[in-house]
Design brief:
The protein is of the alpha+beta class and 284 residues long. The chain has two domains: 6-121, no CATH class; 131-280, Reverse transcriptase/Diguanylate cyclase domain (Alpha-Beta Plaits, 2-Layer Sandwich), CATH 3.30.70.270. It contains ten helices and five strands; from the N terminus they run ααααααβααββαβαβ. It has helices at residues 13-33, 37-40, 45-54, 58-79, 86-121, 131-148, 162-169, 171-188, 212-233, 253-268; strands at residues 152-160, 194-199, 202-207, 238-246, 274-280. α3 (45-54) runs antiparallel to α4. The longest helix has 36 residues, at 86-121. The model has no long low-confidence stretch (mean pLDDT 89).
Length: 284
């Protein structure tokens, strides 16, 4: 889910903080220059909202205090005096409450938004990306590869004999097996690789900017860890894997998944427990 603030997603927190304070100083200077600070004061909510969205809780609250301080300073300069009367204390209190409340509301909304996003994009059992999130990542990888003229590889994995595990030792053990597969893939593959559980006993992996030779090397460790883990647990399963390297890029995610799925099924329908590699050049 994108928001109107997504334009700053590529910036570091330090950069966002700098931008927000710069905006605040600019607003203060503009109000002072035009000798009409009250007209520009509501604009302080803009950097406050931005900072509350991107920074940790303490920084927006400190920024709220900073905004109140700068408003007091500018008002004192414009009026040549600012006595600490009951009116001034009320002035400080109202603004501090307003800016603090605005920051807390944005922080709360951000937390709820992030939690909703994680729930919508994560497989509840394994913690991997789910199919919805994976297809979005695959679409983005195809577009990125087209733009920068990169190859990428795509893997489709099916757990052989998984149904027999569920039938013989129960669904809880079946869930434990799927969690173990997810952990093996996560620990053995590169940080840049995108791993997902598509549903049931099927997994998929995107290997960005990865040739066939590179994907063979990258997946070798994962294959060994999976085999070792299944053997230690006494689970009589194996893995049918199809890995396609797209030197000619697919038209869309449906074509990419279809090619990888068909390659995986050539293994599954043959002898299972194997990995099939293929370079896709656009020719059938």
């Amino acid at each position: 889910m994108k928001t109107m603030l997504s334009i700053l997603d590529g910036y570091s927190t330090s950069s966002v903080i700098f931008i927000c304070y710069f905006i605040a100083f600019f607003i203060a200077f503009t109000g002072f220059y035009f000798n009409n600070f009250e007209l520009f004061e509501p604009l302080f909510l803009i950097p406050l909202v931005i900072l509350s969205w991107y920074a940790r809780r303490a920084k927006p609250l400190l920024f709220a205090a900073f905004v109140v301080s700068i408003t007091l300073f500018i008002n004192a300069m414009l009026t040549d005096s600012f006595a600490f009367s009951l009116e001034s204390i009320f002035y400080i209190f109202i603004r501090l409450i307003t800016y603090t409340l605005a920051a807390v509301l944005i922080i709360t909304f951000r937390s709820a938004h992030n939690a909703e996003f994680v729930m919508a994009s994560t497989d509840n059992l394994t913690g991997l990306s789910n199919s919805r999130s994976f297809y979005l990542d695959l679409a983005n990888e195809i577009l990125r590869s087209i733009r920068y003229k990169h190859v990428f590889s795509l893997s489709y994995i099916d757990v052989d004999n998984f149904k027999s595990i569920n039938d013989s030792i129960g669904h809880l053990k079946g869930d434990e097996l799927l969690i173990s597969v997810a952990r093996c893939l996560t620990s053995s593959l590169r940080k840049t690789d995108i791993i997902a559980r598509l549903g049931g006993d099927e997994f998929a992996i995107i290997f960005p900017e990865t040739s066939q030779a590179e994907v063979k090397s990258a997946f070798a460790k994962a294959s060994e860890e999976l085999e070792d883990k299944m053997r230690k647990k006494g689970w009589n399963v194996s893995f049918s894997v199809g890995i396609v390297t797209f030197e000619t890029l697919p038209m869309d995610i449906k074509e990419a998944m279809k090619i990888a799925d068909e390659l995986m099924y050539t293994v599954k329908n043959n002898r299972k427990n194997d990995i099939a590699f293929k370079v896709w050049t656009g020719k059938v």
